[in-house]
Design goal:
- The chain has 269 residues and is mainly alpha-helical.
- Helix content is 74%, strand content 0%.
- The protein contains 15 helices and no strands.
- The chain has helices spanning 2-12, 21-32, 37-53, 58-73, 80-97, 102-114, 118-131, 136-149, 155-164, 171-184, 188-199, 206-218, 222-235, 241-247, 253-266.
- The N and C termini lie far apart (37 Å).
Length: 269
């Protein structure tokens, strides 16, 4: 992550019309990891330029997959199904171009996740970690997807991710995933602690506030849960439980129902 940040800092000092494919890719990646609708579109623009300069740039295709994933995940898409399909297509292209690159497999796993193909998603992330055992975001994805696939204790993978990359742009997601996994273990007080902590990390988006609302509600802290539900609505007007589960598909119905009911009691329709 620190190398990625250094590459971005170097690239952003250059005139836009002088950027090469590698520099456009790094600027796109930085915007991708800010998790806003505007930054997602800026990432798209940089990635289009990168791929115009080098259509066989595997990492850029992986980042394009992440961009389409983010559009769907952040409810910023005109057609969610189309963006998910394009996330899958771009990830597959990345893997075809460089099957040894961890990011391509990671992106493929995330696309499979939104398609509710949990087993394929975990397999892709496993391949990412075979390519690079020190890939922090791969370990995070194993914990995140594993939680939604029914893995009761995904905490070791999330611990590895945080240890490998303590200042990761996905730190908020690592912590909120920890909260969701603690919910599956019915450890609601600990879940609420990590869920609230995730909301103050850089790049935390509206879904993270909804997770805090659900965990607080499960811990019996109704007023606080309502506060975080209202914050989620402020950050994303029109936010509903349907939008949440579009981005967080659970494999096991009883895991989904627990969060669904908690969000409803917290105030989300």
């Amino acid at each position: 992550p620190e190398i990625e940040r250094a590459e971005y800092e170097r690239a952003r000092l250059l005139p836009t019309n002088n950027l090469d494919a590698w520099e456009n890719y790094h600027l796109a990646l930085w915007h991708n990891f800010r998790f806003t609708a505007r930054d997602t579109e800026l990432a798209h623009n940089y990635l289009q330029r990168a791929l115009q300069l080098d259509e066989n740039f595997g990492r850029a295709h992986a980042a394009m997959s992440l961009m389409h994933f983010s559009r769907a995940f952040l409810d910023a898409s005109d057609n969610v199904d189309t963006d998910i399909a394009m996330a899958l297509e771009s990830a597959e292209r990345s893997v075809d171009l460089d099957g040894r690159d961890a990011m391509g497999h990671w992106s493929l796993g995330r696309a499979h996740f939104l398609l509710r193909q949990h087993d394929l998603a975990l397999l892709s992330v496993e391949r990412a970690l075979q390519s690079n055992p020190n890939y922090a975001q791969g370990h995070y994805a194993m914990g995140f997807i594993g939680t939604h696939a029914g893995v009761t204790d995904a905490l070791p993978e999330l611990d590895i991710a945080r240890r490998l990359s303590p200042y990761d742009p996905l730190l908020f997601a690592m912590e909120s995933s920890r909260a969701l996994n603690l919910v599956t273990q019915e450890k609601y007080h600990d879940a609420a602690h990590w869920a609230v902590r995730a909301t103050v990390e850089p790049n935390a988006h509206f879904h993270i506030f909804a997770i805090a609302a659900a965990c607080l509600e499960l811990d019996g802290r109704h007023e606080e849960a309502g506060h975080y539900a209202r914050l989620a609505l402020q950050k994303h007007p029109g936010y509903t439980r349907k939008v949440f589960f579009q981005s967080f598909p659970y494999k096991l119905p009883h895991h989904r129902q627990r969060i669904y009911d908690a969000l409803g009691r917290a105030g989300l329709i």
